[in-house]
Design a protein that fits this description.
About 25% of the residues lie in helices and about 20% in strands. With about 325 residues, it is of the alpha+beta class. It has two domains: about 230 residues, Extracellular Endonuclease, subunit A (Extracellular Endonuclease, Chain A, 3-Layer(aba) Sandwich), CATH 3.40.570.10; about 45 residues, no CATH class. Strands 1-8-7-6-3-2 form a six-stranded antiparallel sheet, with helices on both faces. The chain has a four-stranded mixed sheet with strand order 13-11-12-14. It has a two-stranded antiparallel ribbon with strand order 4-5. A hairpin with an 8-residue loop joins β7 and β8. It is elongated. The structure holds zinc ion (ZN). The site of zinc ion has 6 residues, from loops.
Length: about 325
Amino acid sequence: MNKGKKIKAFGLLLSLLMLFSFSSCQETVNNIRDTINETFSSSAYSEEQESSDKKQSSVKASEAPSQVSQSSMFTLDSIPEYSGISYVEINGNVPYFDSADYTETAFESYSELDSLGRCGVAYANVCRETMPTEKRGDISSVKPTGWHSIRYDFVDGQSLYNRCHLIGYQLTAENANSKNLVTGTRYLNVDGMLPFENMIADYVKETNNHVLYRVTPVFVGDELVCRGVEMEAYSVEDSGDGVSFNVYAYNVQPGVVINYTTGYARLADDPKSTTEKEKTYVINLRNKKVHLPECSSVAAISENNKKTVKSTLFSLLNQGYTACGTCLG
Ligand SMILES: [Zn+2]
């Protein structure tokens, strides 16, 4: 192989590598979007029909748009670290809707839960028809992934986590719909999401127009608590003059460090203050996996690599161990 060919081959390899790494960092968001593209046409409709019945509204399930979303260019890598403001704009604040969706037909769609039980994209064409006519009901029966009841005095209302509606109750009247509720901090709920929901609700009440509204929870890997949510909105009748945004709101709580894998938390200024109780775990020193003592994999670990510890999962994960997908998944 002469020098020129070598350089060419190297260049090809390099571009393949770049292509590969680019596509893998896009994975999380695109996977979520793919999932809803797949599920929307089938199962999502029955859920919608159910909720329509509950509300006795005239929303017609069959008239939802054929395409829920497009593959967007938004990745978590492009989002700056939280720095004191509850949200950042994405894509110059322009939503990624397909113009084919600019209809004046009410619809609602909630993704099927994934294999870990996590929510996906929630999408609706919000209008008077989809809004509640009754007070919100009890939603405490739903335990979204990563849910723990954690209280801090300095958090508004004391509870660190709220069952956070992806699409707010005031917009589509969904109560205890597990496909529309995630574990979200009080801060995400009130500072991050509510102002945008209020903007849509006020606009619809004033104009009787329609607003496309899509909320995408963003999870990293197998984490049970989302890092944040993307919220996109667009008012149909006036081509976005009334409402148009595309933002990412952080699922954080000032003063608290959240373990997004488990949902446990600790005070930012006290590393020992985790809310999780110590338990007995068995760790595999070779592959750095953590198991519950009763896990079937434990018997297969050689005595040299096996160690029983009393600890919190939070602390073990912070030491570089990973949770077994079978017993701790
Ligand atoms: Zn295990």
